Amino acid sequence: MAITKQLHIQSQELNLQISLPASKSISNRALILNALAYSPFEIQNLSDCDDTRVMVKAFDSNDTTFDIGAAGTSMRFLTAFLSKTVGEWMITGSKRMKNRPIRILVDALNSLGARIEYVENEGFPPLRIFGCALTGGEISLNGGVSSQYISALMMVAPYMQNGLKIKLERNVISVPYIQMTMSMMREYGVNVVFENNVIDIEPQIYKPIQYKVESDWSAASYWYEILSIVHKGQIFLKGLYKNSSQGDNKVAELFEQLGVKTQYQEDGVLLTPNGNSVEKFEYNFVNQPDLAQTFAVTCCLKNIPFHFKGVQSLKIKETDRIAALINELKKLGYVLVEPKNGELAWQGKRCEPETTISIATYEDHRMAMAFAPAALITALIIEEPQVVSKSYPTFWEDIAKIQN
Asked: Would you say the CATH fold of 24-201 matches that of 4-21+215-403?
């Protein structure tokens, strides 16, 4: 039997303090770097989400087979990590994970001395990995692919016999995530050079350090969305910092156009209404693809036409997020279009909303969280609400605070 959550949120004025989850992106990189550094230190404020839990379980396990469920980051990072870890390993995942391409990473690793085979379908998990010393060298990658492939290669690069030089071709997407990886590798004592679309990493050794994970700016976006819709009161988000390595901290600047002001304080940020509202919202999300769902739903609910570019990577996320947004926002009465590949737009066209609105989440945590604030406007049902555990396990408990 399918699990659903009925929502209709009534709020006159907000006065909330929210403790956001730790950053999944930082947590998963820290786990790999900690392991590569043979660190005796426990990572502080590690994320408690599904993606991080499967990584922790893998590192704590004596098994040689790892089922990482729907955790895309874990699949990519662990594939690279296990390829240089002596032993025979198998890594698998959910039905959706078995349909998410991984050939680019596997081909790259095999060209650098790894030995990885496909267990079922060519180009997709599950994988059989024969861990060994990697020779390294020089490779070229399309910069338009997921940055997680690039980050996975970067993190194991210092232990390749010849180091690694990655030449990124065409337009490079999600640059902040590459920069996050580089910044964290430097904190662990490894020098990385990234200039003119070339990443150069010499053979080096990671140093063990004590590391604390900051809160998640991606998770913050849903609270920006909520205040933008209610437009009364304030929300304090703990554990966020202005000088963050997370590219999604751009959400603070972008929501200035949609009615939310951000004040940086010592231990977090304070959100208050600023009265702004653009006539049309236009932005290239190439560096912040995980924010696109939040902004699509927010703009529709505020009747602000939009045109997004740079969202091509949304097609290979937990689901095809472009198709999912078009399908689910139509249920609310908004007719979205895909002007061309890598774009999404709403030109103001409306249709009759469904009588009973039931939002499908497609095993995608961000679909559930981006659509939840729509319950401030109309009653709706969120299908499979437990998917939020992938990145924000306490999301529904925090949402319940709005009416308390």
From this structure: yes
Residue 137: is it exposed, middle or buried by C-beta count within 10 angstroms (0-12/13-18/19+)?
Answer: middle
Fold entry, domain 4-21+215-403: UDP-n-acetylglucosamine1-carboxyvinyl-transferase; Chain (3.65.10)
Q: Which residues carry out catalysis?
A: 290
Model confidence over 331-353: pLDDT tens digits?
A: 999 999 999 988 999 999 999 99
CB 157 within 8 A of CB 190: no
The CA-atom distances, in angstroms, between 273 and each of 254, 280, 303, 381, 387 are: 13, 19, 17, 28, 30
Fold of 24-201: UDP-n-acetylglucosamine1-carboxyvinyl-transferase; Chain (3.65.10)
Give one DSSP letter per residue of 213-240, joined into a string: PPB-HHHHHHHHHHHHHH-SEEEEEET-
CA–CA separation, 352 and 128 (whole Å): 50
Entry pTM: 0.84
Q: Hey, how many other C-beta atoms are within 10 angstroms of the C-beta on 184?
A: 22
How high is the mean pLDDT of the chain? 94
pLDDT digits (tens, 9 = 90+) for 248-298: 999 999 999 999 999 999 999 999 999 999 999 999 998 898 999 999 999
Q: How far apart are CA 344 and CA 309, in angstroms?
A: 7
Give, in degrees to the nearest 5, the angle at Cα 96 between 95 and 101.
115
What residue type is 299 in one-letter code? C
Instruction: Decide: 338 and 313 in contact? Cβ < 8 Å.
Output: no
- At 70, the pLDDT band (50, 70, 90 cuts) reads confident
Average pLDDT (215-237) is 97
Q: Are 236 and 18 in contact (CB under 8 A)?
A: yes
The pLDDT value recorded for residue 283 is 97
**CA distances in angstroms from 253 to 139, 262, 382, listed in the order given:** 36, 8, 29
Is the separation of the CB atoms in 335 and 351 below 8 Å?
yes
**33 contacts 59 by C-beta, under 8 angstroms:** no
What value does the mean pLDDT take over residues 61-77? 93
H or E segment to which residue 295 belongs: helix 292-301
* Predicted local distance difference test score (pLDDT) of residue 143: 87
